[in-house]
Specification:
With 430 residues, the chain is an alpha+beta fold. It is built from 12 helices and 20 strands. It folds into 2 domains: 127 residues, Creatine Amidinohydrolase, Chain A, domain 1, CATH 3.40.350.10; 292 residues, Creatine Amidinohydrolase (Alpha-Beta Complex).
């Protein structure tokens, strides 16, 4: 969608609210609206800036020296004026007292709020762009599928290397992470990692967002679990995937927990639900198999994913109760992409997480209403060495088998002969 079309859509929302001025400070929303990406923040391709949209002006406050002639021409073509970054603070007091201002106070800094004339009417609502950018259009969805094929190739080549070399060559959390990053960087149109890779072995994986340092870097042994949560930005889209790899012998309890997490992941991915549902309504599908065992994970089940933007975005997500500051309890709309990442975390022992991305799409429409479903767009094996088929119902086994069949079909053209023989084993029907 062009910048002009997006600006027109936002102005239409402003008119609906009766707003004359919209102050936008969310960097991802600004990048989405202007169809511009930057490099001012690690792993989040945005430009440090502010934006003000009126009924006839669009003013972008940024470090003007970074704007080259090509960008300047693009901005002029779209009637976007640039001003120095700090000029936002001299502009805001000039907004007339009669104006109605639309802004999301939770994402606007205190100084901007305090510089506004006290008599100005402020409509404190989520930015219209939040929902607009969360609902990916068909081109964005198609492109994101392509990004996931590339990402799946990288992750699966990493899994092959890890599983065939563990115990034979020295490996650590950091060296494993570096190997995976190298496989991603080989992919065409790779831009950068979408966040710092979490590579956590053994008890380290019980800390949900552990980050290996030279001091904590743990040697990998041919036993137990390695949890790797990682992702990439490609020109086609953004990815986020977690796999827990079995490096050698594991206990019956570990296998039971690994299988339960797989069941949880598959149950949510295969949900069918009436339009109007939000993640709060569906979270129990993922959490249920673990709650049945008296186990919980102290985080959401999933979050929205940006399009070459922040890997975390709202207003979509999966969690069992509302957390107001997360802004992720919105209705699941066609085109939204949300992660599905249940887990088990036992302090001092191990952690397990399996994460795929799901695109919300329409299913059948009948006398009961519009039904919705998900398409799983993450392609990488779930380690069958951790699965106990005896704990799975026939339906659950079929869901996993169908998923692995798709993984093999999508990835096998990009694998070597040796990798494909191995991949057949790790995507076999159970």
């Amino acid at each position: 969608k062009s910048t002009a079309e997006k600006i027109k859509d936002v102005r239409a929302k402003m008119a609906e609210e009766g707003a004359d001025v919209h102050i936008l400070t969310s960097l991802c929303d600004i990048a989405w609206l202007l169809n511009i990406r930057g490099g001012d923040i690690q792993s989040v391709p945005v430009v440090l800036s502010y934006l003000v949209l009126t009924r006839d002006q669009c003013i972008w406050f940024l470090q003007e020296e970074v704007v080259d002639d090509t960008i300047r021409a693009y901005l002029k073509e779209n009637h976007i004026e640039t001003r120095p970054y700090d000029d936002i603070y001299t502009y805001v007091p000039t907004i007339p007292e009669s104006a109605v201002v639309l802004m999301n106070k939770s994402s606007v800094n205190y100084r901007i709020c305090s510089e506004l004339n006290k008599n100005i009417q402020v409509i404190n609502k989520p930015n219209p762009t939040e929902l607009m950018k969360a609902v990916k259009n068909p081109v964005e969805v198609d492109n994101t599928r392509l990004a996931h094929v590339k990402d799946g190739v990288a992750v699966t080549k990493f899994m092959y290397w890890l599983k065939t070399n563990i115990g034979k060559i020295p490996m650590t959390e950091i060296s494993a992470s570096d190997y995976l990053e190298a496989r991603r960087r080989e992919q065409e149109n790779f831009i950068d990692l979408s966040f710092t890779t979490i590579s956590a072995y053994g008890a380290n994986a019980a800390m949900m967002h552990y980050s290996a340092t030279p001091e904590s870097n743990t040697e990998l042994k041919p036993e137990g679990f390695l949890l790797v949560d990682s992702g990439g930005h490609y020109y086609e889209g953004t990815t986020d995937i977690t796999r827990t790899f079995v490096l050698g012998p594991i206990s019956d309890e570990m296998k039971q927990h690994f299988t339960a997490v797989c069941r949880s992941n598959m149950k949510l991915a295969n949900a069918k639900f009436l339009y109007g549902a939000c993640g709060l309504n569906l979270d129990i599908l993922a959490r249920g198999p673990l709650w049945d065992m008296g186990i919980d994970y102290k985080c959401g089940t999933g979050h929205g994913v940006g399009y070459i933007l922040n890997v975390h975005e709202g207003p979509n997500g999966f969690r069992w109760k509302i957390v107001p500051e997360r802004h992720d309890s919105g209705v699941l709309e066609e085109g939204m992409i949300t992660t599905d990442e249940p887990g088990v975390y036992l302090e001092g022992k191990y952690g397990i997480r399996t994460e795929n991305e799901l695109v919300c799409r329409k299913a059948e429409k009948n006398e009961y209403g519009q039904f919705m479903e998900f398409e799983n767009i993450t392609y990488a094996p779930i380690d069958l060495d951790g699965i106990d088929p005896e704990q799975m119902s026939p339906r659950e086994k079929q869901m996993l088998n169908d998923y692995h069949k798709k993984v093999y079909e999508v990835l096998s053209p990009y694998m070597t002969e040796e990798e494909n023989e191995w991949l057949k084993k790790y995507t076999r029907a159970i």
